[in-house]
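Fold this sequence, please.
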Amino acid sequence: MPDFILLMRNDAHGPENAAAWDAYISGLQAQGLFQGGSAIGVGTCVRKAGGVPDVSAHLTGFIRVSASDLAHAKRLVVGNPVYEAGGTVEVRELPVTG
């Protein structure tokens, strides 16, 4: 089953329900789909040569999940506190490379 990353943005229209995170993560774990995640703190960009761009300040966290396909991964945002507060969750496939 492919893995996907859910990238949470800081554009929610209302406050996130912090207590809902436990329920959301527990639901993904119960289905065997949760592969990890974290809030994203401050940082910097680095580049070997030339100017460096600004950090993507709109990203606040990520969750890695397993899903059968992109449509399934999109359905997994239901219950996500950022999504439920009207914010954006970016869903990206993590292709197998090798």
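The radius of gyration is 15 Å. Residues 3-94 form a domain with the Alpha-Beta Plaits fold (CATH 3.30.70.1060).
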